[in-house]
Structure formats: structure tokens, C-alpha cells
């Protein structure tokens, strides 16, 4: 039962004490880490690769830049950024979860991506980096899991350089009603079954579906970014708004 005196937040459709959510999210990602990449390909039929490619293109990343892949998990974006920034640049893959970081580090090392990537275990709400440090920050399918999203956005704003940009790739609100019905059926009936079959964990994939529904929609997230100081905030819907890429600048 939730303590009535404690502040609450959502964990999927459940209300939990605010200080409990990080542990619940951690349990999800410890459980799915080993099969995370396989499940991503299965669940999205490989389409997450297109969403991520679009994000990289929108990043404007260049040789020699310093980039933060926040909640970077198994490092899909880090791998791409590392190639773009080259030897003189730096990519930091930061994630709160050591199981996900371990999978990311091993995958990138196996692909020969080593010299310009650093791995940091960190909470998005309290980033352990200096002010005005990064040229670009991406957070891909991560913000949804963060307990205090405003605090995390403020922290990202602080560590971004003047002129730098933030990219938030996240599940969002489908814009076509017909899509919503099919998407709901898929998310709540098929997804947990696939999770049970592949990872032996239906609950984590039920949380995934629920957390997507609880996440702020496109315009709400845009306003949240503006309120912490990001400028020229815009978003692009992908796959009918199932996913949206938000972009904002620090000037
Ligand atoms: C769905 S995965 C996304 C991984 C990767 N960015 C991708 O797009 O494939 C979400 C990641 O967010 C991380 N995460 C959750 N809460 C976090 C927080 N407060 N700070 C940093 N990372 C967090 C999880 O550990 C997990 O690795």
C-alpha cells in the first residue's frame, strides 16, 4: 500500500511512492537487459532503427563534438555518434542501470568502438557533468522512465552548451484513432506475451505499454521543455505519432 503522507508518482498505471519508482524501473531493466536488443527488434519489427537514424540526422552532430547519449542503455545511438564525432570528439553513454551499461559497453567493444566513448552510471535528474559541457544531448526512450522529468530536463539544460541541442526520442500519442485501437490491442495483449516468451517476464512489458500511455503527449512535452528554458522547441511525429522526436536549443 502507498503511504498517504509520501508524494506519489506513476509506475505504469500504478501509483507508487516517488522514492520507490527508481527501484521499480531498475528491476525492469535488470530483467530485460540481456535480451533488450532482440526484444527491440521483435517488438518494433526493426522500425526502432529508422526512428534512431532519423534522430541522428536531426542531431546535426559533427566531427570533434562532445555528445551525451543519456539513458543510452545498450548504446545504439552512442555507436552512431561515435563514428560521426571521430577520434577528436567524445561520446558519453550515461545510464542509471549497470546491467544496461554493461550490455552497451560489451556491444560497442565487440564492434571496435572504443577510443572516444566513456561510460558513466548516472541519474538523469542529477547529471554529474560541468555546466555547458555538451554540444548535443540525446535521450532515447529514456525520459518516460525518469521519476522527476522536469528535474531531468533542467539538469540536461544545465550541462548543454550555449547553442547546443537536446533531442528527446520517445513514445508518444498516436494521431490517428484507427491506429490507437490496433496499437492498444498490440501493446496490452501481444507485447506482454512476447515478453513472457523471450525474457520470461510479462510484467516488464506490461509496464512498457502502461508507461507509454502515462507519458506526456507531444504538446505537453514541448511545453515542459520550454518551461525549463529550451528554445525553438519543435517535434516530428513518426509512425503516426507512436513515436515523436522533440528538439530544443539552449541559447
Ligand atoms: C528503453 S531503454 C532505452 C535505451 C536506449 N536509449 C535505446 O533507445 O535503445 C531506457 C533506459 O533508460 C534508463 N533509465 C531509466 N531511468 C533513468 C534515469 N533516471 N537516469 C538515467 N537513465 C535512466 C534505463 O536504465 C534504460 O537503460
Automatic annotation (TrEMBL):
Keyword Membrane appears in the UniProt entry: no
Listed SUPFAM superfamilies: S-adenosyl-L-methionine-dependent methyltransferases (SSF53335)
Pathway named in the protein's UniProt entry: Quinol/quinone metabolism; menaquinone biosynthesis; menaquinol from 1,4-dihydroxy-2-naphthoate: step 2/2; Cofactor biosynthesis; ubiquinone biosynthesis
PROSITE patterns on file: SAM_MT_UBIE (PS51608), UBIE_1 (PS01183)
Enzyme class: transferase
Annotated S-adenosyl-L-methionine binding sites: 74, 95, 123-124, 140
Highest taxon listed in the record's lineage: Bacteria
Enzyme Commission number(s): 2.1.1.163, 2.1.1.201
Record's keyword annotation contains Signal: no
Gene Ontology terms describing biological process: aerobic respiration; menaquinone biosynthetic process; methylation
Keywords for the protein's UniProt record, in alphabetical order: Menaquinone biosynthesis, Methyltransferase, S-adenosyl-L-methionine, Transferase, Ubiquinone, Ubiquinone biosynthesis
Reactions listed under catalytic activity: a 2-methoxy-6-(all-trans-polyprenyl)benzene-1,4-diol + S-adenosyl-L-methionine = a 5-methoxy-2-methyl-3-(all-trans-polyprenyl)benzene-1,4-diol + S-adenosyl-L-homocysteine + H(+); a 2-demethylmenaquinol + S-adenosyl-L-methionine = a menaquinol + S-adenosyl-L-homocysteine + H(+)
GO function term, MF aspect, one: demethylmenaquinone methyltransferase activity
Protein family per UniProt: Belongs to the class I-like SAM-binding methyltransferase superfamily. MenG/UbiE family.
NCBIfam families recorded: MenG_MenH_UbiE, PRK00216.1-1, PRK00216.1-3, PRK00216.1-5
Function: Methyltransferase required for the conversion of demethylmenaquinol (DMKH2) to menaquinol (MKH2) and the conversion of 2-polyprenyl-6-methoxy-1,4-benzoquinol (DDMQH2) to 2-polyprenyl-3-methyl-6-methoxy-1,4-benzoquinol (DMQH2).
Record HAMAP family: MenG_UbiE_methyltr
Name of the protein in its database record: Ubiquinone/menaquinone biosynthesis C-methyltransferase UbiE
Organism: Arsenophonus nasoniae
Name of the gene: ubiE
